[in-house]
Amino acid sequence: MFEKGWRQFQVFPLFSKEKEMMKSDRETAGVLEPGMLIDELWQTTVETASPAEIGSRCGHFLRAWNSLAVERMETEGRLTPEDLATAEGNLRRFVQMMKTEAVFLGHANRLDRDCFQAAHRRLERRSILSQFTLWPFWPNSVAVKS
Fold first, then answer.
1. pTM to 2 decimals?
2. Burial of 135 (0-12, 13-18, 19+ CB in 10 A)
3. 99: Cβ–Cβ under 8 A, 6 or more apart, which residues?
4. pLDDT tens across 76-87, in order?
5. In the chain, which end has fewer C-beta atoms inside a 10 angstrom radius, N or C?
6. Which stretches does DSSP call E strand in 51-132?
């Protein structure tokens, strides 16, 4: 049993050792933790959206989009700092698209669900004309790890 904050958790020694070994292997391989990636992507989202505020429904869409992106990164085995930098750059591009759509929709100081959907439609139109990607966010298809 160990304490973390104000809670106590009971950990079976076997599982604890295996988890520590996996964590150690990931750290030596330069692999990032998925939970940390989700937090980093959300922080990038908030920073890029600033000074505009993110509406609650839009925030849910963006958090889900970030979670799916991290899932895709895991599936493809791309959890390195370089992959995170690529994902953050592409996320910034998408949020900038949302900010542009917010201006067209008449509320430049707020990103809402309509901004998200308008930017998503723009991605769809753009990908029809050319092979356009915002990995790991777009296109939506996910590679299957064999």
1. 0.72
2. middle
3. 49, 52, 108, 111, 115
4. 999 999 999 999
5. C
6. 53-54, 110-111
